[in-house]
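Title: Comparing notes on inverse folding

I've been comparing how different people in this forum approach sequence design from structure. To keep things fair, I'm posting one structure and asking everyone to reply with a full sequence. Here's the target:
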């Protein structure tokens, strides 16, 4: 049983990142069907990479440039997998009127003006929020890059991936064909699998001040629910691109929630 769970974890790591996994893991549809439970744990790993690079970059550059280096490291680790989903989602929902049109546009590998603008704004907003948190002198804020700030980076990645995982549990898969690369994840998650994902996703929040974490989680939950409602209204469920978009928006919401708590 333990070996099987390890295989599920490595399947998630291979699917959601570009990080290497052992050759003995193999490939199977069963692995991918159960990999989503480890989506938030993969987020912890990606967050640790971003935090480590940010900390190392601080020895050379000011905090904003260190934050930018950390963001770049997470993009390299994931191959911009979720950012691509965000861009495709914005293109699809921005350019399509019917469900069929939205899904067809999402399937196009080319990025449109809606997607380019959207992904640029989200990345810029994350950079600004993290830069402010890294050097902000506001009450109860972070006067400099501290272990708490680095923990926030890790939590932002894990919580946002848990937010995406809740869509797999709650919504139907919107595509009727087998062409999507995320089709193996379309199986509904059980409550036990969702609970395990919640443990991995929310555990890093224990390293944050309780009030800050509460506000950040509340804002993340609101954004996730609104995104889910919008997806259901427009296409009747979710796609892999919707999961990526939710992760990106939830991550931004988490950082903005922390910033709001610090400001208050």
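Reply #1:
Here's my take.
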């Amino acid at each position: 049983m333990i070996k099987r769970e390890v295989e599920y974890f490595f399947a998630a790591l291979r699917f959601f990142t570009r990080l290497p996994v052992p050759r003995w893991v193999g490939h199977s549809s069963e692995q991918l069907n159960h990999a989503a439970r480890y989506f938030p744990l993969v987020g912890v790993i990606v967050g640790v990479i971003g935090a480590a690079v940010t900390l190392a970059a601080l020895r050379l550059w000011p905090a904003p440039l260190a934050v930018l280096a950390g963001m770049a490291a997470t993009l390299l680790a994931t191959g911009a997998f979720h950012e691509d989903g965000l861009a495709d989602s914005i293109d699809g929902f921005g350019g399509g009127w019917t469900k069929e049109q939205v899904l067809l546009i999402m399937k196009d590998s080319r990025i449109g003006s809606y997607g380019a603008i959207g992904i640029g704004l989200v990345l810029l907003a994350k950079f600004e929020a993290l830069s402010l948190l890294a050097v902000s002198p506001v009450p109860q804020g972070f006067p400099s890059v501290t272990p708490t700030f680095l923990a926030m980076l890790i939590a932002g990645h894990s919580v946002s991936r848990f937010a995406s995982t809740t869509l797999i549990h709650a919504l139907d898969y919107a595509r009727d064909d087998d062409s999507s690369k995320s089709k193996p994840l379309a199986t509904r998650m059980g409550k036990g699998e969702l609970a395990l994902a919640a443990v991995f996703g929310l555990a890093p929040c224990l390293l944050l001040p309780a009030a800050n974490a509460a506000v950040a989680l509340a804002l993340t939950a609101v954004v996730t629910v609104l995104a889910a409602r919008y997806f259901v209204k427009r296409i009747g469920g979710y796609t892999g691109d919707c999961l990526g978009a939710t992760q990106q928006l939830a991550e931004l919401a988490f950082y903005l929630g922390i910033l709001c708590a610090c400001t208050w």
